[in-house]
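Self-study notes.
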Amino acid sequence: MEKNKILSKLNIRIKDYNNELEKILENKLFSYDVKNLLLSMLYKIENAYSDYETVKVEVPTKNDFIENLLRIIKEKALKIFIVKVGTVEAEELEKNNLTYKIDKQNGEIICYQNELVILEALIDLDDTYKTVEVPYDYVLEPLNTMLTMGNLDSRAEVIRDFNGWSWDIVLKEINDIQYNYIYETILLLNGKNNIYKKKHKLFYDEIIKLLVRKYFNNSNNLDYAENLKNRKKEVSEQLYLFENKKEFVSRITEEKKEFTKQIEIIDKILNDNELLKKEYYKRNEKLPNKEKIFSISYLVRILIKEREELLSKIDYSNSIILPKEFISNKSKIEKEKNFLQNIEAKVELKDLLQIANEFLQIAKGIIDKIEETNKSDLIKWMYKIRYYRYVPITEDKFIKDMPELEEKFDSIIKAIIKKAQILKIWDNFCDDNDITFKILKEVFNTKIIYLQNINIQCRYENKVLYVEFLDDTIIENTININAENIRIKRKTKLFI
């Protein structure tokens, strides 16, 4: 109450989201259980959001997150049905290994009575997407799938992994480990406001190629895989022609002749009413009812459009054999062929580790450039690297558990420690840099929510340094370090 009075005097508006949700629910024909579930979900989000925002850094503000959720409930969620175990509806969900089902067109959700499940369903129901830049059309579907699923898991994390007093990652609740891993990697590097933007080109190219491979090998995407195989074949044939210029020019010449012939036929039809009628009946005979051409005047517009398209093809054919255009187009085809190489290979752990290696390399470059006036940026990267270490990379392992990445992680953590001491954010524990590193590296393994709360307590006995990491006064974890003749502060706060 006192806090509310203080904020009121400062003219800071306190939002009562519980009240806002209740007002929205007054106009909804949801059952009592559904309304209670939504209110309980909101309570859990509000209770956990501060910890979620602190640990992860790259998240929307609490206001933005909740207001977007309320918008979805108000505008998109028209019907919500809760199913109970043992019912026909529940059996259908279980059969398809689902916890919820949505119908975007009708704004309908069918789900179990669980706060995490209803949150995921609401996020999934929202179809507000942004334009994503892609090098080839067939990249869009795999990329959007990752962004959609990644966004869902990233936002559901607020109540999946946070309960208001601890951070506990529930691996089995993540919908797709690989999509989540890729999304979180991009999010941490690009930032919450640039998740849809193409930054760090080589890094981006590696990721989209990996996403196409993953999507190609999904047994649910057989049509996509078949189309991509055909495209790969087309690219190989095109490159063959570019590499055999004489044959290429010959084929282009033949195509131009064919285009010219088709234009002549269209011109003849357009200038003869009888031929127009014949064309009208001829086309309509082959078309289903819903696609039939409804008048001859409409057929004229179709023919004119076809004629313009043929003229464009002739113009393109003329330009493509010019020396400059020829070299440019050949280069594009070669690039696409390289992109499509090994596209049928399944995504393996080594591919994901390569993404992590590149992320850590780019992140270290950013950290090295942080200036003294930007202490807050370095603190953000402390949290981001700690969070990244706990991003799952397989069904049972986090990125920090990968021995292949240990050297890169050590390098970036040393860079953070050095920069933190230069900027007087962290204290020097002792003159021995190796001991200091071993102590401070453990900060990136802790799950203490607020790093600024960490106290480090040391005890040295029989050539062993015992180090305790406390969340204020509660011991969170300990490490033992073999050391000789060491002088170190008995107890100190991590942050100066």
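Second protein, same conventions, sequence then structure:
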Amino acid sequence: MTQLQQRKPNPLTLFVVILIGCSGIAILPAIAENYTGDFLTNGVGGRALGLGGAYVSIADDATATYWNPAGIAGVSDNYQFCLMHAARRSGLGAFNYISGTKQILPKLNLGLSWIRAGVDDIPIYPLIPAFDPNISADERRNVAKNRPRESDFTPAGYLNDSENAYILTLATGWVVSQSWWDNFGRDSLPPEFMVGLNAKWISQRLNSGDLDLYNYSSWGYGFDAGLLIRLPDFNALFGLENFGGMSFGINLQDISKTTLTWNTLSAPKESIPANWNIGVAYSHDRVFNRKLIFSYQWQQRYGGQSHLGVEYQISTPLALRIGYRDNRLTSGIGIHVRQFRLDYALLFGDLISTHFLSLLWNF
């Protein structure tokens, strides 16, 4: 073992470095229950994020594996893929997402997705006398060995933080029989019901290479369940023609009390709190001859958060979006050309705004 590896780091310095680098990993047990798995609350997909994350009741593409697993039952394409990238904290961290869906049986769709959040190349500093809380200001001033030196600020190594979630989604749906629905006596499209389930494996890793003292990891698994109901119009139920349609969605996340276990000697455990999202969306295809969508979603985690979104299709390939998410404004734009859709979203922040870019491909 090298001399560098034998040196014990200053616990305070180590805590500060890890806290800055870990994008929401809670190291202290007192806060672990609140922020464990926090990277999973960021959201995915440029369209959904441009709508302020109010997507649980829309969820009509491959990103439904995150927003509402039931939604992939309504994806009619043979295959659909989504890729997303976001540079966070002015490029210090990255957030990536990839997903795909396929119909494997006449009434059963399969989805696979991967979410990764990470911060790389965080410098590690061992014991630095200038930062030792046991050394007084007078001792630093009067004792030469306690004064900071240039060599004290040379990193002993670098720490990489990586948080990953791998998700398997299964969903099915059914439509009310048109012949039975016609008994209401008016021309109308029948409602559609979809249900879905996620099984996910989550891992977190702090890796410093040869500095084994800084290598930690945890893992766990959990489950989500979703329901999505779409009512294309209100002709049959209320006799309201040209009123538009509505959809209702609910996503129950971590219903199994997802628990992550660390690989240290004491093997501490952190639990991701159960969370549920419920929402409603209204759509109309003839607002100035273009499609308009209003969406609202309420999220239970963190004391409750409201999400709002509006999308207006100003031309066949172009859609504009604006949203509200946890006291933050969002905006976005979508361009749909043939089997591709490019979506961009901007989340405004107090100090730093985050840009999200995603590509949806169906065939």
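Instructor comment on the second fold: The first strand starts at residue 79 and ends at 88.
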